[in-house]
């Protein structure tokens, strides 16, 4: 039976870079964003439910129009909640199926930006949080998304705070340094959990 570790972190803290480092170490990783994207492209039941709730503007060429749907839900908490309620059961089912296929692996990473917000920690044995200094987070987001400081602050403010997620996590890695430093910290963490 594999040990499932949830990997999470706020926007622009370096969760994706940490995930890449873990994959480079040979650890199988399930990416919730990728799974959700795949379902929104190919699962007709999910696409139909989104169409019924959000209308024809949410669908393009028989697939979910993520950009249009994102604009509908990003600033509307109730609509975001409705979307999560539709999508989550499909994602949970898919993740459980994929985890069953990886039972022979010692360790599996569940890469989930909204690990705690959407209840995916119920599928994990422990959780790793990637954090960074808040000012570094803002600077990274401004550069990555080409947005102003106020836009970056608003995007960060729309998520659960790093401090709340850190308290809910079993391990935290501070990614305020360089990519090489992150790689080293991830390797140290992997060595630690592999021995357990």
UniProtKB/TrEMBL annotation:
Its main location: cytoplasm. Keywords: ATP-binding, Coenzyme A biosynthesis, Cytoplasm, Kinase, Nucleotide-binding, Transferase. It is an enzyme of class 2 (transferase). Belongs to the CoaE family. Pathway: Cofactor biosynthesis; coenzyme A biosynthesis; CoA from (R)-pantothenate: step 5/5. One of its GO terms (biological process) is coenzyme A biosynthetic process. ATP binds at residues 12-17. Pfam families: CoaE. Catalyzes the phosphorylation of the 3'-hydroxyl group of dephosphocoenzyme A to form coenzyme A. SUPFAM superfamilies: P-loop containing nucleoside triphosphate hydrolases. One of its GO terms (cellular component) is cytoplasm. Its EC number is 2.7.1.24. It is found in: Cytoplasm. It comes from the Bacteria. It comes from Fructilactobacillus fructivorans. It catalyses: 3'-dephospho-CoA + ATP = ADP + CoA + H(+). GO terms for molecular function: ATP binding; dephospho-CoA kinase activity. This is Dephospho-CoA kinase. CDD domains: DPCK (cd02022).
